[in-house]
Amino acid sequence: MDEYQNIYDYVGGQKDIEEKTIRAIGNPNDRFKEDALRMLRALYFQAKLGFNIEKETKEAMLNNRLLIEKLAMERVHAELIKILRGPYLKQALESMIDTKIHEVLPGLKKGIEHIVTLDEMPFIDTFFTICFTLNLGFIPSKWTFSNRHRHKYQRASELALKYPKHIPDEGLYHYGLEISLLANKANFNLGLQSYQNQSLQERFNNLPLRSELDLALTSMEIVDIKNKKAGAWLGQLKNDMVELVLQKKLENTKEALTAFVRAYEV
Questions:
Q1: Crossing angle between the packed helical segments 232-246 and 169-189, to the nearest 10 degrees
Q2: SS3 call for 162
Q3: Most exposed residue of 37, 186, 208, 255, measured as fewest CB within 10 angstroms of its CB?
Q4: Contact, 185 vs 204, CB < 8 A?
């Protein structure tokens, strides 16, 4: 564009915009060899704009996809997050599969192949939980997640695998509400559970226990009843009490817990 607002388009960019086409400038193989991140950038523009990727550009993405493995994972991660936020994500994931780029994204292949079949695209946390659930709960160390996000996806995929059909009260207790909701969303999108957002919140709010501190007997009282020095047995006994209370096989009252402790063999 010059000082008079005249646009000089030497690469056909205006026509591509009119035709909603994403095209590399010049030889796409050269462009992607210069910087392999441009392949993910093409997918980002597709996810954002809903444009089609031009045939030669797409073929070059297929042929050069392995170059993505040589990129700093921080760059790949940041670009992927931008792709996942796009309103045309499904279209971008379809192109990702066409070019086999999804195969060079550690641990995401099976997840992407499933997610692209869904009518509605999941949010980012659900996306990664689905992927890592289908990756048998393994999160490749290459991904530069924060400790908080890595822990979240690890726990949620673990819970989804542990209870594919129904999350019991014990699962809610041990994993907490946030992780339980995420695991349910993953299994819902995998066709294994109904969507239980409201019921999980209600069940969590009505749990008879939220922690061991909610037991009607304290550790000191248990030690006094058993007349035995505290040790590993105490933790095991309390764990057993918690599980039975959650399963509604034992009432969380001083009387019921006292009787249980007296009969407990250590």
A1: 60
A2: helix
A3: 255
A4: no
Q: For residue 4, is pLDDT > 70?
A: no
Distance CA 14, CA 8 (A): 10
Q: Is the pLDDT of residue 15 over 70?
A: no
Domains, in order of start, for the chain: 1-105 (1.10.3090.10), 122-207 (no CATH), 212-263 (1.10.246.80)
Gap between the terminal Cα atoms of the chain: 84
Cβ atoms of 44 and 22 within 8 Å: the answer is no
Strand partners, 22: 53
From CA 131, how far away is CA 110, in angstroms rounded?
7
Mean per-residue pLDDT, 200-225: 95
The DSSP secondary-structure symbol of 122 reads P
